[in-house]
């Protein structure tokens, strides 16, 4: 309408709205179906949980419990030997008693926690089968470890067999030269080791009769922490002599050695996991080794198992909360920091 007195139209310049329209257009007053409310209730809480800044010390505490409890209780868990471990174990089993086995323990105390359990298991298995054990090392720090292992296993655990040094087992000692030393073992071992670790001439050691090079051994076992180690033994020794070889190595070395299976290497025991599997196979075949104190590898796998399970659960939980927070943001259906949940009005026909 036109106002003659003022010369202006009395019609409002903007669109007219009603209170009902305001209620419908307001985000906090939109009608919701009862299904939306159910989704909102659960989603809102989960979104709040996902958005919460959880104190990381709770995660540290969980990890402490996951690792500490198995360590304190010395809990062990069943291990099933893989094909790699079975190949090594079965080959030693199939060797005739009295077979000659050269064991090169090429590691130091820094890697002993990971490699010593498999080295000890090798000694137990060889002694149980009655094989002749020839020990050597290319790492200077390994000599004390070898002496400790031989005293613990060959002298103490097999005291009833009365294993005699020089007839049943011997330690050639440490030899420098790295790759050159490996080549010398393959060609002329006596030139490299004129005496054993005790200073006795090899000519005076009964079990050295007929041993001149790597070709005269029935098996080479190498426990390797790095260079020189398993890879160099394959490249510069067993490739030419065709002597069967099995390896125990650190976890980071495993991928470098897998391509040599089965042509150059019978099998690989990788990391503490491989040691635990070998202990499980040894305990199954020889129950006397099933005592917990003799299974360091199995005991050390307990904390790893629980720590890995905890990490998997945390990763899965974190991803679930992230997805839920994206599906149910904090302002969904008008719910958020600046809104009130009481303002949400259910749709007509829905539950009150």
TrEMBL record:
It comes from the Bacteria. Keywords: Membrane, Transmembrane, Transmembrane helix. The chain crosses the membrane at residues 305-324. The keyword Membrane applies. This is Uncharacterized protein. It comes from Planctopirus hydrillae. Residues 9-18 have a biased composition (Low complexity). Residues 1-32 are annotated as: Disordered.
């Amino acid at each position: 309408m036109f106002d003659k007195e003022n010369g202006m139209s009395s019609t409002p310049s903007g669109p007219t709205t009603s209170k009902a329209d305001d209620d419908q257009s307001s985000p906090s007053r939109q009608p919701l179906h009862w299904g939306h409310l159910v989704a909102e209730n659960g989603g809102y809480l989960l979104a709040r949980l996902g958005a919460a800044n959880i104190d990381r010390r709770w995660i540290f505490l969980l990890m402490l419990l996951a690792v500490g409890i198995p360590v304190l209780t010395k809990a062990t868990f069943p291990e099933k030997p893989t094909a790699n471990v079975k190949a090594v174990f079965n080959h030693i089993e199939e060797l005739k008693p009295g077979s000659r086995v050269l064991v090169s323990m090429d590691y130091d105390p820094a890697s002993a926690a990971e490699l010593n359990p498999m080295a000890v298991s090798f000694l137990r298995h060889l002694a149980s089968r009655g094989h002749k054990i020839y020990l050597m090392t290319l790492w200077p720090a390994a000599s004390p470890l070898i002496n400790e292992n031989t005293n613990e296993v060959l002298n103490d655990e097999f005291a009833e067999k009365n294993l005699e040094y020089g007839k049943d087992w011997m330690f050639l000692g440490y030899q420098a030269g790295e790759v050159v030393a490996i080549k010398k073992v393959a060609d002329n071992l006596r030139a490299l080791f004129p005496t054993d670790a005790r200073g006795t001439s090899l000519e005076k050691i009964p079990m050295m009769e007929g041993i001149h090079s790597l070709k005269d051994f029935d098996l080479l076992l190498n426990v390797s922490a790095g260079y020189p180690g398993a890879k160099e033994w394959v490249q510069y020794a067993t490739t030419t002599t065709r002597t069967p070889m099995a390896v125990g190595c650190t976890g980071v070395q495993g991928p470098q050695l897998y391509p040599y299976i089965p042509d150059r290497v019978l099998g690989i025991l990788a990391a503490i996991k491989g040691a635990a599997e070998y202990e499980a196979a040894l305990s199954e075949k020889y129950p006397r080794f099933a005592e917990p104190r003799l299974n360091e590898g199995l005991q050390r796998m307990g904390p790893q198992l629980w720590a890995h399970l905890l990490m998997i659960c945390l990763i899965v939980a974190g991803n679930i909360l992230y997805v839920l927070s994206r599906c149910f943001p904090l302002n969904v259906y008008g719910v958020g920091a600046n809104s009130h949940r009481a303002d949400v009005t259910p749709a007509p026909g829905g539950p009150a």
